[in-house]
Amino acid sequence: MRVIVTGAMGWTDAGAIRRELEKLPPGSTVVHGDAPGVDVLAGQIARELGFAVEALCKIEADYRRYHRAAWKGLNERMLDSGADLVLAFHPELGEPGRARGSGHMVELAHGRGIEVRGFRD
Hints:
Elements: E1 2-7, H1 14-21, E2 29-32, H2 38-48, E3 52-55, H3 60-66, H4 71-80, E4 85-89, H5 100-111, E5 115-119
Parallel strand pairs: 1-2, 1-4, 2-3, 4-5
């Protein structure tokens, strides 16, 4: 199973991430971005659990296309790499005007028919 983990840069609840990653089948791959918080925690925990980890980062093309919102390009590339599931951890997930990066990922995943599980706390 290929899983994208996304969320808040200020997220510190490693236990919530661990609980969800422990549910994944053996041989899963965890994909995350290059931000602190959820991304870093997910990578560390996934490695501890023995999963393959792919950490993608923003590239020049993302900045050329989206400028300061280069995370949009990163989100698109993570989804383009393939995903069966998106796990989104953000305390403001689903609130209008909040959780922009995570919300963008959730919206794109829904548009592609990918299962999304969101966690606010």
